[in-house]
Amino acid sequence: MIRWMLTIVLAVALIAVGLWGYNQYLQNMEYRNYIENLYQKSFFELVGQIGDIDTKLSKLMVSGDQSQSMVLLAEVWRQADAAQVNLGQLPLGHLSLIKTSKFINQLADYCYYLTKKVGQDRTISLEEMDKLQKLRNNCAQLNEELKVLVDNLNSGGVKWGEIRQAKIKQELNEKAENLIEQQFIKIERTGIDYPTLIYDGPFSETLQQRKDIRIQGEAIDQKKAQEIAADFVGRARVGEVNDGPETTADIETWGVYIKPKDGNGTIFVSVSKKGGKVVNMISDGEIKSAKLSLEEAQDRAERFLAQKGYSSMIPTYSQKFDGTLVINFAYKQGDVIVYPDLIKVKVSLEDGSIVGFDARNYLIAHKERDIDPPKLSLEEARKLVNPNLKVKSEGLAIIPTESGGERLCYEFKGEYGGDNFIVYIDANNGKEVNILKIIDTGDGTLVI
Length: 448
Description:
The chain has helices at residues 2-62, 66-88, 95-119, 126-154, 160-163, 166-171, 173-179, 181-185, 222-233, 294-307, 360-365, 378-382; strands at residues 238-248, 252-260, 267-272, 278-283, 313-321, 324-333, 336-348, 354-358, 390-400, 406-416, 419-426, 432-440, 445-447. Helix 1 (2-62) runs antiparallel to helix 2 (66-88), helix 1 (2-62) packs antiparallel against helix 4 and helix 2 (66-88) runs antiparallel to helix 3. The protein is α+β, with helices and mostly antiparallel strands. Strands 1, 2, 3, 4, 5, 6, 7, 8, 9, 10, 11, 12 and 13 form a 13-stranded mixed sheet that branches. It contains 12 helices and 13 strands.
């Protein structure tokens, strides 16, 4: 009797274990399919964006209208920025990927530089057209190589989810040389002397040269990064959390994918491996209509930063596009605006939710500074500003230098001939450091 009962118990246990194992298998397969779909989405969006860029650059080569050239350049710049985001979400760590990323960044930067130039009613020179042609040739090459990779993926030759696994990566070393790495490695730096640019607010481009990352704290693992990412997005908003790709750039990060409870898109969060700081966050959820005013959206962004512990941040410049408002915030220490400490926040104009966040510049540069009193008074500096500029506001600001240092200046904002400008005067020696032009686009402000 006891033996019979034991047999039944064991049989039930085996069935239970089998059912549990089958359920785990189904969940694992569902997760793998989910990750595979995310990678496929990022890759095919990248392919579409590169193809669109190639088309617009070819149109630019035959455009004879300055306003049309400006539209095409601006579209290439935005598409290249979006392509960079998708490229960064692919599970690749090859040196070739870094080179491709550099090429796309340079393409975006150069087109943005020319957009600003054309916007000032200056024509594109023959030398610059030659550089654009070289960029277009490289883009066409990248477009063709990506098509080869599309064919390999469509034929089942390789899956993104498998590449993500370290063991498979080792097995694919030689295959990667043909299927993936070979497609990217041909995109080398073109050798063009790209200009230094100002975008995402004044002076942010100079921080790309900074190497003295200031993030402090203990190292965290992927699990802790998931917890930090979920808290940052908001637990009430989080439906599902999964691992994302790591980065080994200037700030090493863990990647985290979050599926919102409302099922609208996917949120990607990168968390620094040291200190557990959220470096950036981006959502690809659909925004159907704009209901909030720009002032309401800015208020949401300010409250969000305060909730996340970023105090003394003031809005500087903003830009509206695709149903969102992107606002650049700078740190303010006392009465001095500190432009190196920049944070970018992207707000949905549909419901006021935060759909983008970038604190890379802030994490690189932020510290409490010992600011010595300026040698020049405000009155003395004001006398050095061209009298043609009708000054509307003035104050102290710290701006980064090309060499990676910082400079204390007086910032004079004013108007001349119907245009708005910012003039920077060194607060210690009185030299005119920089002049920026502010363009009101109707959707926000750009500084060039």
